[in-house]
Write a structure and sequence with these properties.
Structural class: alpha+beta
Number of helices: 3
Oligomer: single chain
Largest sheet: 5 strands, antiparallel
Order of helices and strands: HEHEEEEEEHE
Distance between the termini: 30 Å
Radius of gyration: 14 Å
Number of strands: 8
């Protein structure tokens, strides 16, 4: 089956795995999806990720992170920019989810990065997702 939006597919797989208390989830590999996984790891939402070759496109194995009593770290993952409606924001317009406790994932000219890093580097771009 062809997947039209690999980013929303990845975010949905992570959201479903976190709600089911799964230890890891496998997603399709693309440059943007690897960038999103890197941002989630840097910001502390997942434990780690590794790339696995399967002879075709490849896979990303993401190990999810939970709190000391088993509570989920990822509460809400919302896709902002979609294939039918792209959302671009300047550095001053990037939202602060939960007054700075959540993150926005932004695709910039220097790669995929979090909203905090965008503000430091003074870059805007396509708003991919919000994570709370």
């Amino acid at each position: 089956m062809a997947i039209n939006d690999p980013i929303s597919d990845m975010l949905t797989r992570i959201r479903n795995a976190a709600s089911n208390r799964a230890k890891e989830v496998t997603c399709l590999k693309s440059k943007v999806c690897v960038g999103i996984a890197s941002v989630l790891k840097d910001e502390g939402y997942i434990t780690s990720y590794e790339l696995a070759e399967d002879g075709r496109q490849g896979k990303i194995k993401i190990k999810l992170k939970y709190g000391p009593r088993g509570e989920t770290i990822l509460h809400a993952v919302k896709r902002e920019s979609k294939p039918g409606r792209r959302v671009y924001k300047g550095v001053e317009e990037i939202p602060r989810p939960l007054q700075g406790l959540g993150i926005c994932i932004v695709s910039t000219s220097k790669g995929v990065m979090s909203d905090r890093k965008c503000r430091v580097e003074r870059l805007g771009g396509e708003l991919l997702a919000q994570v709370n």
